[in-house]
Design goal:
Chain A: Keywords: Cell membrane, Membrane, Transmembrane, Transmembrane helix, Transport. The complex is a heterodimer. Chain A is mainly alpha-helical. Chain A has 14 helices and 4 strands. In chain A, α3 links the parallel β1 and β2. The radius of gyration of chain A is 30 Å and the shape is elongated. The two termini of chain A are 32 Å apart. By secondary structure, chain B is α/β, with parallel strands linked by helices. Chain B has 2 domains: 217 residues, 3-Layer(aba) Sandwich (Rossmann fold); 72 residues, Alpha-Beta Plaits (2-Layer Sandwich), CATH 3.30.70. Chain B is built from 11 helices and 13 strands. In chain B, strands 5-6-7-3-8-9 form a 6-stranded mixed sheet, sandwiched between helices. In chain B, α9 crosses α10. The chains are: A mainly alpha, B alpha/beta. Chains A and B meet through α1 and α8 of A and α2 and α3 of B.
C-alpha cells in the first residue's frame, strides 16, 4: 500500500512539475475554446436586414403595407424617406441592405424593391424579397376576400429534451478532445522512461510494475477530471453553456473513454523507439480526430464521403456520448450511450492487446 | 559464508561472444573487483548476475537462490548501481529515496543514506539540476536504500572529481565494515588496489586471473625500477652507469643525460654499491626513487595491453 501511495505521489509530483502537461492538458484546450467560442458563439443570432422605406405620398395602401413591414422582426426599418433618390444614395453607400418603395396611390398596387447590384443574388436580398412578396400576397388575398388555404407550420426538433446550442456543442467537444489527447500523448512518458533506461532501472528492484502502471493510470484519470471541471466551468460561466449532467452516465462514459485513449497511447508507445517518433504518430492521429470527429463542427457538415471515417474514429463516440450525458442528461439506461461506450471499449481493448503483444515480442526491457 | 557463485557464464550478442567462460565465488563481507579493458565483458557479466540479461549458458546462485525460481527474493537482497543510472529528472533525491524505499520490505533510513552519499544539502533539488557527481552519488544511495546484502557498483567513480572519488572510497569501506558484500567494476587501478579484497581481471570475455591485489603484484617478476639523477654533469651518470652494468642483479639501464633508470632484482644491494662508488668519487645524488609495482603492471603483464584511463 505504501508502494502504491509513493508511486501515485511520484506521478502526481511529476505531472505537477511538468510544464508541458499543463500547457497541452489545460492551457491549450482553454485557448481553443476561447477562440472558437468568440468566433462562432454569436453567429446564431437572428437574421436581420436593415431597410429603408420610401413613402412619397402616404395613402391607404401604402400605410397598410408599411404597418405589415414594421411588425416583421427580420426587417429593421432604419430610415423612413420621402424620395426615391435619397434611398438610392443610402443603398449606394451601403447604409441599408434594401429600400422598399411603397405605392404612390390607392390604385397603384406595385411595391418596388431596390437593392445594390452587388447584392442582387445575396441571401439577404432573397429573404427580403421573399418577405415582401409574402406581404403583398397577403394584401392581394385580403383584397379578393379569400383566406389562405395552405400555410407553413414551423416546429423545431431535437434529439433530447434540451436544445443544443453551439456553446454546448463546442464545450463538450473540447472536453472530449482534451481527455482524448491526454491519453494519446500521455504515454510519451513510457517511451521516455524506456529510452532513458528507467524501466530497466526499476526492474533491478523488487518493484511491482503493474502497481506502477496502475498508479500512473490513476494519476491520468485525476488529471482528466481536472480538465473536465476547468473546461466546464469556463464554458458555463464565460459562455453561458447550459449543462444538464447525468452523473452516472458521465462517469461510466468518461472512465471507458479515458482508458481507451490511454490504451491507444500505449499502443503507439509499443512501436515508437524515440519520443519524436511517438509524437509524430500521436499527432497524426490527434489531427485526424480533431477535425473529423465533430469537435468544432457537426459531422453532418462534412462531405458525404468523409462520414464513414467519422463513424470509425473513437473520438466521434466520446464527443457524442459526452453531449448525451452532459447536455441532454441521458444516462446509462439509454442504448445509445452503450453503443458509444462499446465502440470506444473496442478500440481500447484492441489497442491494448496489440500493444502488449508488441511489447512482449520485442521484450523491450532487454534492449540495451 | 559464500553469498554468490557464478559458474561457466556464457553470453553472445549476435556473432559477438561478449562473455566466453566466467566462473567465480564471492564471500560475505568481501569487496570483489572486476577489472578489464573496455569491451572485456565486465558489464555483461554484471548484468547477467543482476538478472537483467539471461545468460546463454551457466548458472548464478545467491546462496540457495537462483533467478529462475527466486527472482523477487534475490532482488530484495541486492542493490544495484548501474553504469548509466537513469532517474526521474523532475524528482528530488529525497523523493527518489522515498520511492525506492517503498519497493523493499526493509530500509536504511533516508537521512543516513543522504549523509553517507553527501547529498543532505541537495536533497530537495530536482535531479535535472544536479551535477554528474551528485547524480552518481544518488545512484549509489539508491543501491543502498533497501539495506541489501550484496551491492553492485558498476564504475561508481567514473566521471567524479578526485575529492568525490575519495569520498566514495570511504562509503565503500564503510559498507564493508557493515559486513556488506560489494561487487565493483572500475577503470581505476589505484581504486581496485586500495579497496578490493580480491581482484578479478577479465579480458575478451574470459577470466585472466583472480587473487588478492598484493598477491597479484608479488606474482610479477621481482625486478624493480630505480630512478636517480645527479647534480653534476653527465660524467657522473656515465661513470655510474659503467659501474652498475657490472652488477649481476642489474638487468637493464637507461640513461638520459644526468638521469638513470635501473632495473634490478635487488634494489637494496644495487643502491649500496652505487652509493659506495658515488661517495668515493664525491658525486652528489639529487633525486632517488624506487617505483612500486602496481596493479597496472599486473594488468599489463596479464593482458598484454596498455592500461587506458
Amino acid at each position: 500500500m505504501n508502494q502504491f501511495k509513493q508511486m501515485f505521489l511520484m506521478h502526481l509530483k511529476m505531472t505537477f512539475r511538468e510544464k508541458q502537461a499543463w500547457f497541452w492538458g489545460l492551457f491549450f484546450p482553454v485557448i481553443l475554446m476561447l477562440i472558437f467560442m468568440s468566433i462562432f458563439a454569436d453567429s446564431d443570432d437572428e437574421f436581420e436586414a436593415s431597410v429603408a422605406v420610401v413613402e412619397e405620398n402616404p395613402n391607404e395602401v401604402s400605410t397598410a403595407i408599411y404597418d405589415q413591414i414594421e411588425v416583421i422582426p427580420v426587417l429593421n426599418v432604419d430610415h423612413q424617406l420621402e424620395s426615391q433618390s435619397e434611398a438610392e444614395q443610402l443603398i449606394i453607400d451601403q447604409e441599408v441592405t434594401a429600400a422598399i418603395v411603397l405605392p404612390q396611390t390607392d390604385e397603384d398596387s406595385d411595391v418596388l424593391l431596390m437593392v445594390n447590384a452587388e447584392d442582387e443574388q445575396s441571401t439577404t436580398t432573397q429573404v427580403v424579397s421573399g418577405v415582401l412578396s409574402n406581404i403583398v400576397q397577403q394584401m392581394n388575398l385580403q383584397v379578393v376576400g379569400a383566406s389562405e388555404t395552405y400555410a407553413v407550420d414551423f416546429q423545431t426538433v431535437t434529439t433530447g429534451e434540451h436544445e443544443l446550442s453551439y456553446q454546448d456543442f463546442l464545450l463538450t467537444g473540447l472536453i472530449a478532445l482534451a481527455v482524448a489527447q491526454g491519453g494519446l500523448f500521455g504515454m510519451i512518458d513510457l517511451v521516455d522512461m524506456r529510452r532513458k533506461g528507467l524501466i530497466k532501472r526499476l526492474r533491478m528492484t523488487p518493484v511491482n510494475m503493474s502497481l506502477f502502471g496502475l498508479s500512473d493510470m490513476m494519476m491520468r484519470l485525476l488529471f482528466s477530471v481536472i480538465q473536465i471541471f476547468v473546461l466546464a466551468l469556463i464554458g458555463v460561466f464565460l459562455f453561458n453553456a447550459t449543462l444538464h449532467i447525468n452523473v452516472l452516465g458521465l462517469v461510466v462514459l468518461f472512465l471507458v473513454g479515458a482508458l481507451s485513449f490511454n490504451a491507444i497511447g500505449y499502443f503507439i508507445s509499443s512501436f515508437s523507439k524515440t519520443t519524436e517518433a511517438y509524437m509524430g504518430v500521436a499527432n497524426i492521429f490527434s489531427f485526424l480526430m480533431m477535425f473529423l470527429s465533430g469537435i468544432f463542427f457537426p459531422v453532418e457538415m462534412m462531405p458525404e464521403w468523409l462520414h464513414p471515417v467519422a463513424h470509425v474514429l473513437p473520438l466521434t463516440y466520446f464527443a457524442e456520448g459526452l453531449r448525451d450525458t452532459m447536455v441532454y442528461s441521458i444516462g446509462i439506461e439509454s442504448s445509445a450511450i452503450w453503443f458509444h461506450i462499446g465502440v470506444m471499449a473496442l478500440w481500447g481493448v484492441v489497442a491494448y492487446i496489440i500493444g502488449s503483444w508488441l511489447y512482449r515480442r520485442k521484450s523491450i526491457v532487454a534492449t540495451r | 559464508m559464500r553469498v554468490l557463485e557464478v559458474n561457466h557464464l556464457k553470453k553472445s550478442f549476435g556473432a559477438v561472444q561478449a562473455v566466453k567462460d566466467v566462473s567465480f565465488q564471492v564471500e560475505q563481507g568481501e569487496v570483489f573487483t572486476i577489472i578489464g579493458p573496455n569491451g572485456a565483458g565486465k558489464t555483461t557479466t554484471l548484468e547477467m548476475i543482476e538478472g537483467l540479461v539471461p545468460p546463454d549458458q551457466g548458472d548464478i546462485k545467491f546462496g540457495e537462490l537462483n533467478w529462475k525460481k527466486n527472482g523477487d527474493a534475490i532482488k530484495k537482497k541486492i542493490g544495484v548501481q548501474p553504469q548509466l543510472s537513469a532517474m526521474f529528472d523532475l524528482l528530488t533525491p529525497s523523493e527518489h529515496l522515498q520511492l525506492f524505499a517503498s519497493f523493499y520490505d526493509k530500509n536504511r533510513p533516508e537521512e543516513e543514506i543522504l549523509k553517507t552519499v553527501n547529498l543532505t544539502e541537495h536533497k530537495d533539488k530536482q535531479v535535472r539540476n544536479l551535477s554528474g557527481g551528485q547524480r552518481q552519488r544518488l545512484a549509489i544511495g539508491l543501491a543502498m536504500i533497501g539495506d541489501p546484502e550484496i551491492i553492485f557498483l558498476d564504475e561508481p567513480t567514473t566521471g567524479l572529481d578526485p575529492q568525490a572519488r575519495r569520498n566514495l572510497w570511504d562509503i565503500i569501506l564503510r559498507l564493508k565494515r557493515l559486513d556488506k558484500t560489494i561487487i565493483l567494476t572500475t577503470h581505476y587501478m589505484d581504486e581496485a588496489e586500495q579497496l578490493s579484497d580480491r581482484v578479478c581481471i577479465i579480458d575478451q570475455g574470459e577470466i585472466v586471473t583472480i587473487d588478492q591485489p598484493d598477491a597479484l603484484i608479488k606474482r610479477l617478476t621481482v625486478e624493480r625500477e630505480v630512478r636517480l639523477s645527479f647534480l653534476e654533469h653527465e660524467e657522473a651518470a656515465i661513470n655510474s652507469e659503467k659501474v652498475l652494468t657490472e652488477l649481476s642483479v642489474v638487468s637493464r639501464i637507461d640513461r638520459d643525460s644526468t638521469q638513470l633508470k635501473i632495473w634490478t632484482e635487488d634494489p637494496e644491494y644495487t643502491l649500496l654499491e652505487l652509493f659506495n662508488y658515488t661517495k668515493q668519487q664525491n658525486y652528489q645524488v639529487d633525486q632517488i626513487s624506487i617505483r612500486e609495482m602496481s596493479l597496472e603492471d599486473v594488468f599489463i603483464e596479464f593482458t598484454g595491453k596498455e592500461w587506458r584511463d
